[in-house]
Design goal:
about 700 residues, alpha+beta, six-stranded antiparallel beta sheet, 19 strands, about 35% helix, globular
Length: about 700
């Protein structure tokens, strides 16, 4: 786990304010930290950062003039001169320049006593802050700040995270730790001698007038250029060999060198990529293997001089549902620039496997129950590994975008998407009414104001635990998404008190002044933020030492280019596959296997149910006396009953059960941890969640 942390204080030196730091910044500092600059406003990088992932630029000023410097942490494709130009632009207040470089990174700028910390657009690199010692501390992880202020759990935030995970109005700016706040995606934190300001650096579209749209050809070309440059930035970065690990024990029957290396927990040197057979991962693999114009390569192609890209395909032996995807992966891997590795796994890699063996992550996320599954795949990957995370949320159209089209009086563009939903329902009498039902729901959302929509959602939320079980069809899921807010899949198992508290949060948000976006755009951004946050936690839960996961679809420039796509193009069936086909064609890749772009889901319902059935005794023990029940969020008996019913095949939302199990698992890891993130004579005496227990609550306020 890697993060940066720093603070801004009112005093000229933290050594005179609360006696928490001396002039050299050594009285208190993070464990395992690297000091980037010192007092009065120090900044540290913590964790196993690579040397090229930490870059600092300083502008020489006259003697006695304010200090002007910048730090970039992460994968950034900008040159030193571009960083210097961006620093000068930020000096004049142009923060957007700091987010226009290729790659995925966090930027910290110090101009005198003013500090600016810039988050990304998707939310994969968030920024957290908390008031502390007369100033403000900030970090790219919430847990170190929670340790710093000895925070307790924010039970109200956990309730909102389970009840409405894709509703920013319910989550607000909170975190699971009381007193630790998060800045929204697309915003920056500005600190001036202890005072703080949160400002957006991205333009927000008007609710009444649509922004000028690019023509479809130019918009898709923009996505192509952004994605190609995002991949190129990773290929041009310095290569890193895995750190020294225990020696190879020698030949093992049935295991080759690659399998022995994976068993010791070491990635393969070089660059690799997922190759699941889906369009997103295959696009990245083909781009990384054959991107033209890279210096030092044979004929200007490939990942290196004679180097082949390692393409990893996961083969689940417990099901045959992924056979078409495996066939497409094998066809793509016939490319001579790819070295194909198939990772076969059985019951040991099912969802919910090895729940007690994972590390503590910064926050809870549904991906915790899939960590062992992903770890087995990634352990066979490379030191720099591409993944297709975020492509669905970045390129696909959220169903609520149909309402945006109606607001612009473009009804004819609804014909193809509603016809596709009717076709997905099958030849039934119900499917005949799907187009009309979807059109009415989209028209209702387009005519519903932000305040009315949130008030309606708040009124319905307390009844979310009375919903009858049943499997939603594609049309039902789209109809449910045509709303300003909707309950999450875990809401049906929360207590009435927890749902009532989240309902109050929505009611308060409805009357609070805010910059209202169009319903489709707002819901799409919320879904992207949720997906990016889950990917961030997955990186921590399935972390392989010396390995870096690269998700170019979550880069700022790719997200910006995708947002420029016309709504009418986004909502068309197969739009994502068509866009990625155009991306590959622009890179000189035209031959794709049959079935390219077919819808795929990495973990199917059947596999999840199989894993749930295999891990049922462990899950029942997990919820025998759950901490979630101690906090008043669930009733243990109700959750145990739902787990047994789901394992027997009853149509229950498995995503909701995964969220409950992940949150309970995260709570247990949190309260059982030892030590804190800080050391020194002035370090906090207690860790976050002091005392190691989750207090029972009569009220979820806070």
């Amino acid at each position: 786990m890697r993060w940066l942390v720093g603070w801004s204080s009112i005093a000229a030196s933290f050594g005179t304010a609360g006696a928490v730091g001396g002039g050299d910044g050594r009285t208190m500092h993070p464990v395992g930290s690297q000091l980037l600059w010192g007092d009065p406003d120090p900044l540290w990088a913590v964790g196993d950062w690579r040397p090229d992932e930490i870059r600092t630029v300083r502008v020489d000023t006259a003697e006695g003039a304010p200090m002007v410097r910048l730090a970039v942490l992460g994968c950034c494709g900008a040159t030193d001169e571009q960083l210097r130009v961006g620093l000068l632009a930020a000096r004049g207040g142009a923060l957007r320049h700091l987010t226009a470089w290729t790659g995925s990174y966090t930027v910290v700028v110090q101009i005198g006593r003013r500090i600016t910390v810039v988050g990304d657009l998707a939310g994969a690199r968030p920024v957290f802050y908390t008031p502390w010692a007369g100033g403000t501390a900030y970090a790219t992880a919430a847990l170190p700040l929670a340790d710093l202020i000895e925070a307790q759990l924010d039970i109200g935030h956990l309730a909102a995270l389970l009840a409405c995970p894709e509703t920013p109005e319910a989550l607000r700016d909170g975190t699971p730790y009381a007193g630790v706040k998060r800045i929204p995606p697309g915003h920056a934190l500005i600190l001036r001698e202890g005072s703080r300001e949160i400002t957006g650096y991205e333009a927000v579209a008007s609710l009444a007038v649509a922004a000028p749209e690019l023509d479809p050809v130019s918009a898709v070309d923009g996505v192509r250029d952004a994605l190609v440059e995002a991949v190129r930035a990773r290929l041009l970065a310095p290569r890193h060999a895995p750190e020294t690990l225990p020696p190879d024990p020698g030949p093992v029957p049935g295991m080759g060198p690659a399998e022995r290396r994976a068993a010791r927990g070491a990635p393969v040197p070089g660059i690799g990529a997922d190759l699941s057979g889906g369009s997103a991962s295959a696009t990245l693999a083909l781009l990384a293997a054959g991107l033209p114009g890279l210096p030092g390569t044979i004929l200007g192609h490939g990942t290196g001089a004679g180097e082949r890209l390692l393409a990893v395909t996961f083969n689940d032996l417990t099901t045959r549902a992924h056979e078409p995807e495996l066939e497409r992966a094998r066809a793509i891997a016939a490319n001579p620039r790819l070295h194909h590795v198939v990772v076969a796994a059985g019951e040991e890699a099912l969802p919910y496997a090895e729940l007690g063996a994972g590390p503590l992550t910064d926050e809870p996320a549904p991906s915790l129950v899939l960590a062992e599954r992903h770890r087995r795949r990634l352990s066979a990957g490379s030191a720099d590994h591409f993944v297709g995370a975020g492509a669905r949320q970045v390129l696909d159209a959220h169903p609520a975008r149909l309402a945006d089209l109606l607001m612009d009086r473009r009804r004819r563009h609804l014909l193809r998407p509603v016809a596709a939903l009717a076709k997905a329902e099958g030849p039934t009498a119900h499917s005949l009414f799907v187009p009309l039902t979807v059109y009415r729901a989209a028209r209702k959302l387009a005519r519903t104001s932000y305040r009315t929509g949130l008030e309606t959602a708040a009124g319905r939320l307390p009844d979310a635990n009375r919903i009858a079980p049943g499997l939603d069809t594609p049309a039902d899921a789209s109809l449910a998404a045509l709303a300003w807010s909707r309950p999450g899949p875990a809401a049906r198992w929360l207590t009435g008190e927890a749902l009532a508290e989240v309902s109050v949060r929505l009611q308060e948000a409805a009357i609070r002044p805010s910059s209202v976006q169009r319903p489709g755009e707002a819901r799409a951004r919320a879904a992207l933020a949720r997906s990016a946050a889950d990917h961030r936690i997955l990186e921590q839960a399935a972390e392989i030492r010396s390995q870096r996961l690269h998700a170019p679809f979550l880069d700022n420039q790719v997200v910006r280019a995708a947002r420029a796509l016309p709504e009418s193009l986004r909502v068309q069936p197969g739009a994502r596959a068509a866009i990625l086909r155009r991306v590959l064609a622009g890179a000189g890749i035209h031959e794709l296997p049959p079935g390219w772009g077919a819808p795929s889901q990495y973990t199917s319902t059947a596999v999840t149910r199989t894993g749930l059935r295999a891990a049922l005794p462990e899950l029942i023990a997990l919820f025998d006396a759950p901490l979630l029940a101690d906090a008043g969020l669930v009733e243990a008996r109700v959750v145990r009953k739902a787990l047994r019913a789901a394992s027997e095949g009853e149509p229950l939302p498995l995503d909701g059960l995964a969220e409950l199990a992940s949150t309970e698992l995260w709570l247990r890891r949190l309260v059982s941890r030892r030590g804190t993130c800080w050391t020194g004579t002035a370090a906090p005496r207690q860790r976050a969640v002091a005392g190691g227990v989750v207090p029972a609550r009569r009220s979820l306020q806070g």
